[in-house]
């Protein structure tokens, strides 16, 4: 639903600005959380390639944390594919949220510009009224 910002009162614009600030904060937080999880998967995937001195009975299988405290035994190649799928999924989610965040930022900027315009008009009216009152 399109709303003409110039038809809104200053208090309505302030409320809309506050709402948009909350939404952008939420979306920014969501992206940050997705990036943290994505980084963990990248690090886990990279750790499969690292050489660590030690003795292992089975070097072909690893335990993979699949979430909520559950671990699954997988071979190294399946583990790499699992992490790649998770990283790709998170990348797509970030790419979906990013445009919404940019749109909210643009909307907030438009609201601020209309608010400033209305404040300038109000200030101009007050100045001209005080000028005619003195005359």
Characterization of this structure:
Belongs to the prefoldin subunit alpha family. One of its GO terms (molecular function) is unfolded protein binding. This is Prefoldin 5. By secondary structure, this protein is mainly alpha-helical. The protein is built from 2 helices and 2 strands; from the N terminus they run αββα. A two-stranded antiparallel ribbon has the order 1-2. Helix 1 (10-47) packs antiparallel against helix 2 (76-134). The chain is rod-shaped. The protein starts with 9 loop residues before the first helix and ends with a helix. 5% of the residues are buried. The mean pLDDT is 89.
Count the DSSP helices: 2
Would you tell me the structural class of the helices and strands?
A: mainly alpha
Task: Tell me the helix content.
Answer: over 70%
β-sheet strand percentage:
5-15%
Cα radius of gyration in angstroms:
27 Å
- How are the strands of the biggest sheet laid out side by side? 1-2
Span between N and C termini?
Answer: 47 Å
Largest sheet: 2 strands, antiparallel
Seen as an oligomer or otherwise, the chain set is single chain
* Low-confidence regions: none
Shape, please?
A: rod-shaped
GO biological process, one term: RNA polymerase I assembly
Organism: Astyanax mexicanus
Protein name: Prefoldin 5
GO molecular function: unfolded protein binding
């Amino acid at each position: 639903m399109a709303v003409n910002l110039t038809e809104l009162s200053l208090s309505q614009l302030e409320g809309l600005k506050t709402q948009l600030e909350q939404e952008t904060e939420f979306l920014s937080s969501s992206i940050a959380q997705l990036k943290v999880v994505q980084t963990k998967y990248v690090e886990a995937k990279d750790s499969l390639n690292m050489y660590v001195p030690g003795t292992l009975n089975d070097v072909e299988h690893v335990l993979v944390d699949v979430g909520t405290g559950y671990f699954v035994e997988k071979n190294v190649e399946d583990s790499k594919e699992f992490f790649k799928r998770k990283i790709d999924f998170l990348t797509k989610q970030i790419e979906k949220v990013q445009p919404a965040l940019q749109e909210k930022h643009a909307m907030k900027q438009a609201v601020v510009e209309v608010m400033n315009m209305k404040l300038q008009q109000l200030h101009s009216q007050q100045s001209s009224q005080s000028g005619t009152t003195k005359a």
